[in-house]
Amino acid sequence: MANLLIIGAGGVSRVATVKAAQNKDTFTKITLASRTKSKCDEIAKFIKERLNVDIQTAEINADDTEAVVNLIKKTGAEILLNVALPYQNLTLMDACIKTKIHYIDTANYEHPDTPKFEYKLQWEKDDEFKKSGILGLLGSGFDPGVTNVFCAYASQYLFDEIHYIDILDCNAGDHGYAFATNFNPEINLREVSANGRYWKKTANSSSDRVTNWDSDEWVETKPMEIGFKWDYPEIGVKDTYLLYHEELESLSKNIKGLKQIRFFMTFGESYLTHMKCLENVGMLRVDEVEHNGVKIVPIQFLKTLLPDPASLGARTKGKTNIGCVIRGLKDGKEKQIYIYNVCDHEECYAETGAQGVSYTTGVPAMIGSKLVAKGIWSGKGVFNMEEFDAKPFMDELMTQGLAWKIIEMKPGESYKVGEI
Amino acid sequence: MANLLIIGAGGVSRVATVKAAQNKDTFTKITLASRTKSKCDEIAKFIKERLNVDIQTAEINADDTEAVVNLIKKTGAEILLNVALPYQNLTLMDACIKTKIHYIDTANYEHPDTPKFEYKLQWEKDDEFKKSGILGLLGSGFDPGVTNVFCAYASQYLFDEIHYIDILDCNAGDHGYAFATNFNPEINLREVSANGRYWKKTANSSSDRVTNWDSDEWVETKPMEIGFKWDYPEIGVKDTYLLYHEELESLSKNIKGLKQIRFFMTFGESYLTHMKCLENVGMLRVDEVEHNGVKIVPIQFLKTLLPDPASLGARTKGKTNIGCVIRGLKDGKEKQIYIYNVCDHEECYAETGAQGVSYTTGVPAMIGSKLVAKGIWSGKGVFNMEEFDAKPFMDELMTQGLAWKIIEMKPGESYKVGEI
């Protein structure tokens, strides 16, 4: 049915490719390309052994639009799934415009030097996508991605009006190390040390696609300022903090009638203590330090010392729980639900060779590609997840490894069980 | 009266030299020598400006016995005060034997590669010192040093028998940094991560100068295993942990009738947390790590990142309290005292340009030299502090900046106010 080109060869790409191979009725041809072809070959070998499906592999510099155009032409791809770095979203979107094929990614474009999470530059490509007659699906991971679909499903099927959304992301995985990071420690640091931000409706709120970050509808908080102990279903109580996360930008525009939306993530006390101590001694510095005549960037040296994030998958135990607490009106009455997925790190690793953090992002990337491939989600232009009918995506989640549950709560009820 | 040669140009040396210059009736000529002559010149300049006393300076490699011999001959020194590294005790003792001049130091010899604190190699020079007709005074700092003198004073003047000694070393100085170390972090780490050890009398105890560390009289404890909150006079409650410290070796032999002696030091919770976190990420490793093609020893890179210990003096506020709780018998009755000195970091810095940790070591180093210079402490061979009459040293402490106090306690009374 569709010829899929996947760019990137990290953990998320591994999961998306394995899952695409499991859906070979939809994806009749799959090409996996990245800067390091050997990584693609290793994934292809894994898939051949496990599923007896053949995957093509190629070397590609995703920063080079022309090279991507040539690869698309050579493979005959109809859909490009971008699970490379978010730095490369724009060049890959341009390659899709030039070749008139559909584009899907899992995370906001970021400039490598001045990271700022916003959809502006990707939304600005809407006209070009329309003119090319293609669809761009932005943020088809878990959060953003499934969290947007949870909200859309609630909005379309369960509520007449939604007023409050809290997205809660808990990773209770334990890799057995006193300290290690799932990503580059620089990105982890940014999460912990950045100011938080959430959205609430004010007289100035508008649904323009150009976001005015200085508007009073965006409330800024100090790093880790808002936090509490939350009792996650099937996991238990975890320290949880308010952060900014990119789905707030699109959901605050697309969920009509919304009064407030916030995002929370768990950080263990020990993790935060380590980050603080490392910051105190200067190990999180990103500038060069002269040491015995050599210039060393402390955070890069820290990365050298820490366990390779790729090695964590094989030893991570425990679960993730990511979901949304949604409150609003149904048939004139107050209603509140908790809709979430629980994912087990060891089960993910057994199936795909990657742990839960990659799995929860890679599976929705494949599902988004599948719905586009089958024309179930269709349109011309650049879209966020919640702009489509949520039902077919919710159905796919149930059968592709990310089953979800809904708890009916009392309106105003909270699983917050204490302060930090 | 005496011609003094001081080796070393760190904080302790600075204090000892300033104090020697304040006692110019005793020290008619003072030469300050170290590997880096400019450091000596800076101290000499400070002393000239403050006290209008002239100090000679010289460059010396303290590892080179012959060079030291030549310097002693050239200066005509009669006493050598070693406040260089403890690695150099043996070569400097040999230079004193060859030139027949008295030797004084403040800390146990250590081998740079296999640090082990014991007096064995220094005590073995006793015969050669006797033959040369010279005196070697070992450990004339604060602890060891003043703590030994406190015990000797109690033994000689206040008690008929001493049964229990607890030495308690509290540094409540605050340099205003979240984390910094007073010494090389490698030495700080060793203190925190080494097993503790204390002495108690058993049937196997003997007063032989060769210590049998495997004897059951030495009780080994895990790092930080024994700890409590202690209410230090004039400071307050601080977390305090049992460590091994070198004065236990000589005091357990020289204080007759002793049943138990232990040593305790304060470590703040934040300090220990930082050390633990740094250890967890590998930053305290002493082996080489390959980073971007360069070999880096993590703990050395940490030292580069941390504030220079020499820069802490000017900004350290607060006090030290080092003392001994001594329990025994007097006139057939139980008796217990707390004998201690309190030292103020800022006052030390104002007087000498070095903070309290250097001051409390440098002042006793000068006093030991002074008592030897004046012949008040005399003898042939190698001695520890407690082998002399404590009274003249106690009198000097009162007038040289380290006044002491005695609190009469109820026998069995404790200033322990809680567990950690």
TrEMBL record, chains A, B:
Residues 141-401 form the Saccharopine dehydrogenase-like C-terminal domain. Pfam families: Sacchrp_dh_C, Sacchrp_dh_NADP. SUPFAM superfamilies: NAD(P)-binding Rossmann-fold domains. Residues 5-135 form the Saccharopine dehydrogenase NADP binding domain. It comes from the Bacteria. This is Saccharopine dehydrogenase family protein. It comes from Campylobacter portucalensis.
